[in-house]
Amino acid sequence: MPEIGEVARIVHYCHKHLVGRTIKTCEAFADDKVYGAVGCSSDAFQKHVTGRRVTGAGQQGKYFYLTFDKSPHAVLHLGMTGWMKFDAEETGYYRKPDAEEEEWPPRFMKFLLTCEEETVEGEVRAAVQSAFVDGRRFARIRLVVCEAEEIRNVTPLKENGPDPVQDKDVVTVEWLSALLGRKKVPVKALLLDQANLSGVGNWVADEVLFQARLHPEQYSNTFSEAQTKQLHQSLMEVCTIAVETRADSKQFPEKWLMKYRWDKGKKGEVNKLPSGEKIVHLKVGGRTSAIVPSLQKKTGPVAGDVDGENEVAKPAKGRKAKRKVEEDEDEEDVVEEKPVKASKRSRKAISYAEDGEDELAKPAKGRTAKEKVVGDEDEDEVAEEKPAKASEKSKKTVSYTENGEDELAKPAKGRKAKRKVEEDEDEDEVAKEKPAKASKRSKKKISYAE
């Protein structure tokens, strides 16, 4: 996901090719998610942007904006894979585009801006086209009505925390210390929460914590004054360099973890720093975190040290696993869920919270297993039930609750096995009988409880 440095790159090219220019045409393409999710529409965007002169471009964390000579203005979020492309030059930051990506106009466009050749402040500016693209549709495009200089004081930017680079006068050591003390969550989750800080994403948070020599799982309210100062210094340095280099990793310092975090080398080798320290990957706040355990020591309580509080949920694994990403997600709430152990093929975590009490339900195992949920069930009685054992091929648990009495019935084994149930059976007499022995092919176990 584009973070503070990548967004700074977009803003750089917007200044270079759009600011001071008049948008001759704007062709917007309908998308009920990219536009509709934030109360905008492609028709409205096209109408209000066409003919406008771009007066400025800026950012706040993961958001960037374009201001015009007349309200409304555009505020955009890149989501997971969004990007701004220009036909005049390549704007990518980490790899050379393939032939398909170099085609113009590009695929997955959400809007296409066209500026004709014009003279701006005595300088002849060549014609240029710019396209906003997003294949996964997590990006967001909206219009905001306000004065250009007030754009950061209206929704959605006002709901986000300060930008470590744009708001250095706000993000002080004292400010960070107060923020850490107000929360009781893993420090990485705190850094990722955009309501706390704007622009810090997964790799930036990992780099900040590595440079500060802090463990990502340690609770935010457990750091010493010296550790807080180190965290602040690392935060400001990493974010500033990311912005100044416009996320070009080739320009990052050689001491940075980012240079080695995904370099696993030959088969069988593990990630490691040039000095030999091992790099491991773990889940914090539902995100993969790179950490060097020999350098990032735990000096206080971490998420796993407290039962039932602030534990990390692991997302499903596998190529086909899908992850739901919501804009402005409250990551503090996400990390408080406790994962449920399930089969590798279908790891599902279901958490229920009511009146301050949390329960974790384990989904049935097997591809065809189904769970029956009955409303208004007596939870006190159900909690005392002991599940019946069934065959591995078809584990089924059937519970019956009536008048405060619970029974667990086990289905017969074998495809041809049948169970005869008689109505109005005298259970007192049957309970005294000794069950007959069945053949190996159709063993039947019948239990009666009263």
Task: Describe the structure concisely for a colleague.
By secondary structure, this protein is α+β, with helices and mostly antiparallel strands. 19% of the residues lie in helices and 18% in strands. Helix 5 (202-212) packs across helix 6 (225-244).
From the alpha-carbon coordinates, what is the Rg to the nearest angstrom? 29 Å
CATH superfamily heading of the largest domain: MutM-like, N-terminal
Low-confidence stretches: 306-412, 414-436, 438-450
**pLDDT averaged over residues:** 76
Family: Belongs to the FPG family.
Domain Formamidopyrimidine-DNA glycosylase catalytic: 2-139
GO cellular component, one term: nucleus
Catalytic activity: Hydrolysis of DNA containing ring-opened 7-methylguanine residues, releasing 2,6-diamino-4-hydroxy-5-(N-methyl)formamidopyrimidine
Describe the structure.
The protein has 3 domains: 156 residues, MutM-like, N-terminal (N-terminal domain of MutM-like DNA repair proteins); 145 residues, Helicase, Ruva Protein, domain 3 (Orthogonal Bundle); 75 residues, no CATH class. The chain has a 4-stranded antiparallel β-sheet with strand order 1-6-9-5. The protein has a 4-stranded antiparallel β-sheet with strand order 2-3-4-10, with helices on one face. The protein is 19% helix and 18% strand. The radius of gyration is 29 Å and the shape is globular. 30% of the residues are buried. The chain has 450 residues and is an alpha+beta fold. It contains 9 helices and 16 strands. A hairpin with a 4-residue loop joins strand 3 and strand 4.
